[in-house]
Amino acid sequence: MPAIADIPSAVWDSCANPSVPAAEAGLAAACGDASALAHNPFVSHTFLSALEASRSAGRRTGWQPRHLILEDACGAALGVVPCYLKSHSRGEYVFDHGWADAYERAGGQYYPKLQVSVPFTPATGRRFLVVPGPQAELAQAALMDGLKTLCERDGASSAHVTFMTEAEWRLAAEHGYLQRTDQQFHWDNSGYASFDDFLGALAARKRKAIKRERREATETGIEIVRLTGSDIDEAAWDAFFAFYMDTGSRKWGRPYLTRAFFSLVGETMADRILLVMAKRAGRYIAGALNFIGGDTLFGRHWGAAEHHPFLHFELCYYQAIDFAIERRIARVEAGAQGEHKLARGYLPNVTCSAHFIADPGLRRAIADYLARERAYVDAAGRELAAASPFRKDAGFDIRAVTEAEMETD
To answer: Which of 217, 219, 243, 187 is CA-nearest to residue 390?
Structure first.
């Protein structure tokens, strides 16, 4: 199976980010919904190339490329899948360590496994990347079946598709994949004219708390600067990488991304990057990295050399909201986990993954576990949505999107 460098960028991107308007008849339905067709920077050939060329993802790090290509009889690409052969379960954000431990205690071999995802990136998007059109669902189904064949060929115990769209999740279930859900916190832009307009939709207590946090975050002489495009230079990347390494070392033990990765994305997709940096006394002290999609701002990494109250919230959440309002971006995804995001206007949303398990015994055990886990995620989402910071009279339908609702057409 090819590495991303072995696949022409035009071929990959014709499937991953097709240059067609989402409103065109039939396209939204074929790919699940209109937003699914919006540009996604993470499945682009450029982003995946940066991961592999920088050796952030590769054989050395346990992410061996196994990308799939579906072609018609004339050799034209109908679809592609970002897929990796994994020797561990790190960098995925959908945790299956317990499954691996149980299977190996029973005498099985869980690794290698196949992982369909964007390495180190818990952002929802299409995973079975097919050319939009009336045959899109058939192409997706063919790729799902092809993934099972690849699993057998590589001697993998399983195949895992994470942070996929709901439409893909439903289709995968029809093709023998087990369904799993989790939740993240996303901010939705309800046509706000300004940050103050957004604050006006919040309950008074929450509104006052955010104003206080924003004020205190910068009252010690901190300046916030937003960098995008050609404004992002190597000095900014040097500073940010130091912040990233510090945070990553404390969270994961070994950070995933190499310094070369940041230079590569800076060279090739700077117009898709928002780097929010904090300066004090003329030097950078903290930063947050975001990627700009067609309708979504994706918050990815954060780090700091100095601790200041509420600076994390300002750089990662409030600046992202500000930017989204200014650019009329529909939503902000602020990464995995974090119930503290709820008080800052980020509401619970279900995320989807699908899992093909080759061993029938392991499959039965995991299916039982996932049924109980989905019920828990559903109940937790409803409970969190009830604690929404928005005013009850603001005119918004504020609730969690639950797995039960996803099952209902």
So the answer is: 187
The per-residue pLDDT for range 378-401, each reduced to its tens digit, is: 999 999 989 999 998 765 544 444
Query: Could you tell me which residues come within 8 angstroms of residue 326 by beta carbon, excluding any fewer than 6 positions away?
Result: none
User: Residue 8's CB: how many other CB atoms inside 10 A?
Assistant: 11
- What tens digit of pLDDT does each residue of 223-234 get? 999 999 999 999
Res 252 pLDDT > 70: no
CA distance 18 to 130: 9
Separation of alpha carbons 175 and 394, rounded Å: 42
User: Among candidates 84, 60, 106, 49, which has minimal Cα distance to 154?
Assistant: 84
Per-residue burial over 85-108, b if 16 or more Cβ lie within 10 Å, else e, is: bbeebbbbbbebeebbeebeeeee
CA atoms of 328 and 41, how far apart (whole Å) = 18
**Count of CA atoms in the C-beta half-sphere (13 A) of 182:** 20
* Upper half-sphere CA count for residue 39 (Cβ side, 13 Å): 16
Q: Which residues pair with 225 in a beta bridge?
A: 277
In the chain, what is the greatest distance between 2 CA atoms, to the nearest angstrom? 65
- Choices 3.40.630.30, 3.40.50.920, 3.40.50.720, 3.40.640.10: CATH for 4-184+349-406: 3.40.630.30
- How far is the C-alpha of 264 from the C-alpha of 51, rounded, in Å? 9
DSSP line for 282-302: TEEEEEEEEEE-SSEEEEEEE
Distance CA 141, CA 134 (A): 13
Are 4-184+349-406 and 190-329 in the same CATH fold?
Answer: yes
Topology (CATH level 3) of domain 190-329 = Aminopeptidase (3.40.630)
pTM listed for this prediction: 0.91
Q: What is the CA radius of gyration of the chain?
A: 21
CA distance linking residue 274 with residue 326, whole number of Å: 13
